[in-house]
Amino acid sequence: MKYYLIAGEASGDIHAAHLIKALKQADEQAKFRCFGGDMMAAEGAELVQHYRDLAYMGFLPVLRHLRTILRGMKRCRQDILDWQPDALILIDYPGFNLKIARFIKEHSNIPVFYYISPKIWAWKEHRIHDIKRNITCLLSILPFEVKYFDEQHQYKVHYVGNPSVDEVEVFLEANPLDFNAFRADNELDEKPIIALLAGSRKQEVRDNLRRMVEAAKPFQKDYQLVLAAAPGLDDDFYQKYASGLGVKIVRDQTYRLLQHSSVALVTSGTATLETALFKVPQVVCYYMKAGRLASFARRLFLKIPFISLVNLIVGEEVVPELVAEQMNVENVRQHLASILPNEKGREVQLKGYERMTEILGGKGAPKRAAKIILETLNAREGN
């Protein structure tokens, strides 16, 4: 069968690549085409356009690049219709993907699968109407979503497990702990590491990186600061915000960095979950301009008590979340100090991580997702 996949950021690229691998194992005749990233291409998908060409966030950046985004969307729509896949598989990225789903529903009979469902429980709940109307099958990677969609919207979703569990376990099995090798490969010193994961988009890095570094500065006598560079953002860009501050940069090694880190400062997103799966205590940092106004808007529009996946999954605050005006140097520094080795806050977080892992369940998410996709396609053919 022919599968067309769309992912709009680095984490989606990783998840989609593992799904492609699972589909290849289940369907020997599988062919893939995608709007996505390097990892999807490495698994054999024909890459039509890279996600970094369309990865803009925030009102003004989106407005400035609206023509580019619209051209990309038009190209994607036409490419799907021309290729006529047996299945369209959308990975997160709801602002773009739900519009594609609507177009495909209106102009074809191609079934549309959504892997990593839109987070409408957080905001834009009205998107449930688009989901019900245009999505053939919704696959969830967060356990609490099943109850939410069922009770709030009478809509069935399939929880397949969380792919990050698979990705971290596979990495650890293939990469035994070897700090000396990691240090030598990246010209690091012998001090323990404070990892900096400042987001995958330029605006996130602009808003967060310098504040993270300033907060960690007093600990540089005993620790080294190591930044995980995001795909698509070059070292020159990072130097604008970290030059002269003693930050070392590693590229394409986020998991390896987390494997060897003592603690981490993390911008909210999939990275918070991955950091927890590596059992690295963390502080979640998400600065926004006009902080007080942003905090008010968050309370007004967001329907959830937390922004990090760790806290959402457990249902309580396991990791500190410093958002908007709360994300300042003093607050980050105080919370960072509380999770260093031998500090009480560290053990509290690690126990919370254990609860999170139990709730998520074991590995196998991509294989379960592939199985449901194929069963649904086969059932459609049989009707």
Q: What would your notes on this structure say?
A:
- Helix content is 51%, strand content 16%.
- The chain folds into two domains: 179 residues, Glycogen Phosphorylase B (Rossmann fold, 3-Layer(aba) Sandwich); 185 residues, 3-Layer(aba) Sandwich (Rossmann fold), CATH 3.40.50.2000.
- The chain has a seven-stranded parallel β-sheet, with helices on both faces.
- It has 383 residues and is an alpha/beta fold.
- About 3% of the residues have low confidence.
- Helix 5 runs parallel beside helix 6 and helix 10 packs across helix 16.
- The two termini are 17 Å apart.
Top keywords for this entry?
single chain; 383 residues; Rossmann fold; 2 domains
